[in-house]
Amino acid sequence: MLQNTRALRRASAAASARAAVTARRPMTIFGTVCATLLGVTLSVGLASAPAAGAVAPDVAAAFPRTVLGADQFSSIADDTRSAVSTAEAAASVADALSDEVAASGLDVGTTVKVDTSTLEDRIDALDDAEVMPLLLLDTRMEEAAAETRRVVSETGVLRDAFTAAQQKKAAEDAARAAAEQKAAEEHAAQEAAAALAAANTVDGAKATARQLMASTYGWGGDQFSCLESLWTKESGWNYQAYNADGGATGIPQALPGSKMAAAGADWQSNAATQIAWGLGYISSAYGTPCSAWSHSQAMNWY
User: Fold this and answer.
1) How many degrees, rounded to 5, is the angle at CA 60 between CA 57 and CA 62?
2) 49 or 8, which is more confident
3) Rounded to whole angstroms, how far apart are CA atoms 254 and 221?
4) Which of 33, 176, 187, 269 is deepest in the core (most CB within 10 A)?
């Protein structure tokens, strides 16, 4: 026998269960062989027909061995094994794909399972191929081939539908991720705008200055008191302050205001940038805010 049990066939087919269905070569059906052998049958029957119905059932069962040569019989056996192997592989691929589709939970718009039960029956029907009458073997082969083609076709349809469903889900996931990213960026921008607006208030600017003084220069509350007095006199802590007489700009009254670009391109709209530049200027020119305040009191500028 070609195979003893369906379980053994399944074991031999497992290595190629997921090979692409389209890569498998078509089955060769024995149309030409059948026609030739039918002629042989008729010839034999006419030449040796002393009595009608003289061929015993056991002789008919052994027909392939007694009529065909060894090479012909071996070729038929090889083709039968190939047909069975192709059918088993088609069934394995179909079952594996059906399981994958079912596990995915995706809507494929069609049936989620390829029915391979009839193909299994056709494979089982070829178990006794070596002792089967040739004409019956040819019929069984045709049935197995037709069922294999059906399974392969339905597997292809299901594969295409599954691929389309996967692509649709991937596109939906990407769109959702993009929307979430956009929402996160908009939220971050809103928070940044809110923080900037808060920092640009008088209280916000003072809080920023106190924090920068401590973290960058190690200046404490006494120095902040001097700075508070200095910049209250200069600009009232208004980041939009502008002196039309000389052009001094911003909280520290930089002259010209464009000097503050050294601390950041947003110097015209961000109090924190102006404060960072102003503290750097005070540190380099006067050492401390209190020294700058003393100079301002004495000279009316700093």
Assistant:
1) 115
2) 8
3) 24
4) 33
